[in-house]
Amino acid sequence: MFKTVNAINSLLGTILSLAILTALGAGGWFAYQTYFAERLNAEKELQAREAKIAGLSQDLEAREKQIERLDQELSDSHEQIDRLEVDLEAKQRQIERLDTAVRLLKVDHRVAQIDVFSQEGSAAGGDLVTHFTFAEVDGQGNPLEKPRPFRIKGDLVYVDSWVVKFTDEYVEMGDPLRSTSICLFRRVFGEAQQPAEGFVLDPVGSQPAAYRNGGKMSDLEQEIWARFWEYANDPGMAQKAGVRAAHGEAPFQKLIPGKRYKVTLRASGGLSFEPPEDLPPDAKPASTAGTL
């Protein structure tokens, strides 16, 4: 009986031990599973975060490269703008220079005026005579000499002159000696007279009216007037002096009593008559006049 009880106790102890061991094993397994599951999840989460960080890093790197590219494009744009501004300034200066050159080329200088006071006779009767005065003037239209009176047959007057035109380069630059054409008035005559019979205005070798009141004729002008026809007929000689053309001109105009006719000289051209204007009240005819 005693042995049976011991056997039963031993069996129960064994069963209890097995139960305890089983419980411990199950608990350990559960703990193991829980630990490694959490660790696995943590590793997965860490990997996900690392992948996300890697993606963000790549995105950041791409953005940095984009920023660098945009910075370079912006820098290139600024450089291009600077170049364009420099080019614009250069073109603006060129435009201003050309505008100035064109303006200078088109400048008209008053050089003389004709005041017409009266006419006698008639064209139909063939005895028409026109009374007028001629005077060289400055740029403001002020006479440089006492107006000289003349009478011509008919009503057409010719103003014979020598004209020297300089190359546009000198005119555009505003060269002090060659910035405008120059002229020397030779004579005036009517349509019924021969040019050689006209009234002499500035004899060859004399000082033109423009220089009689203290002005000084430059050495170049003295040389040109003294050797005018040589310059007119020798291209090489003319080129060295910057002369584009040298020739005679005789613009003519129909005269109407009570009118003032201004003769102008274009900086790059020749002589011309402006449309007439009424004589001012203080204009007076001279007492004596030459007649043709």
Short description:
This protein is an alpha+beta fold and 292 residues long. The chain has helices at residues 2-105, 168-173, 219-226, 228-233, 235-240, and strands spanning 108-120, 129-136, 148-153, 156-166, 182-190, 199-200, 243-249, 252-254, 259-266, 271-273, 277-278, 290-291.
Q: What brief labels describe this structure?
A:
single chain; 292 residues; alpha+beta; 2 domains; 7-stranded mixed β-sheet; 5 helices; 12 strands; 45% helix; rod-shaped
Q: Explain this structure to me?
A:
The chain has two domains: 105 residues; 184 residues, no CATH class. The chain is of the alpha+beta class. About 3% of the residues have low confidence. The relative contact order is 0.13. The strands form two sheets. Strands 1, 2, 3, 9, 10, 11 and 12 form a seven-stranded mixed sheet that branches. Strands 4, 5, 6, 7 and 8 form a five-stranded antiparallel sheet that branches. The protein has five helices and twelve strands.
Termini separation comes to 187 Å
| Parts with pLDDT < 50 across at least 5 consecutive residues | 100-107
Number of helices: 5
**What spatial form do the alpha-carbon principal axes imply?**
rod-shaped
**SS class:** alpha+beta
